[in-house]
Amino acid sequence: MSGLHVDSVRKHFRFRQVLSDVFISCKKGEVIGLLGRNGSGKSTLLKIIFGSLAAENRFIAIDDIPKNGLFESRGLIGYLPQESFLPGHIKIKSIVSLYCDRNQAAILFDHDLVKPFLGKKSRELSGGERRMIEVLIMIYSTASYLLFDEPFNGIAPIYIEKIKLLIQEHAVKKGFIVTDHDYANILAISSRVIMLHDGAVKKIEGLNDLVDLGYLPEKYDIELEKITFT
């Protein structure tokens, strides 16, 4: 089976079962939208897939080859955490060179969204500017599958639209699993949408499913009714 295959993920904290035999898959060319209420386990699931968090049980494979930890998935799975990962005392140009190979760095050095910040240190940027740089570094990485945890957090709306386009453009050759509290942005870019509910994954085929699962109120923005999932 081609693509990223995640199965039988179980995780509990103290006396609470957060994830119960979770299954999720992602192929190159897909943007999987992952929704869920606060505390449903979205970030926990992404960390387990990436390999930075242990689980009671997990099965991860890429193109039918099992991956048993962070080291084996290195270079194949990229993870954008909620928290900023940019070193505050280093200039953006050096950070790009640190995280990207020569070809990727050259692209980002000439990118309109990155150019204005190359000579600045990370701590001199606003939270939204840092987030934008982090997202771009991940998009232009060599990883085939990208896990994005709240990529739009704090970013100005004009830049969010550009990042959404970049995700969709790069999804031709990569697979994305994206979660964010701004569900409208997730619905707009996703080829498939799933939801974590009571520790399990539910397939979302329309907005009525989100209402039925208690994620959206019955009266939601009428414009969202036009969104369909493929």
From TrEMBL:
Write the record's keywords in alphabetical order, separated by commas: ATP-binding, Nucleotide-binding
Q: Name one molecular function that GO assigns to this entry.
A: ATP binding
Record carries keyword Phosphoprotein: no
Give the organism the record lists.
Answer: Pedobacter cryoconitis
InterPro entries, per the entry: AAA+_ATPase, ABC_transporter-like_ATP-bd, ABC_transporter-like_CS, P-loop_NTPase
Protein name per the record: ABC-type lipopolysaccharide export system ATPase subunit
Looking at the record, the residues that make up the ABC transporter domain are 4-223
Q: Is the ATP-binding keyword given for this protein?
A: yes
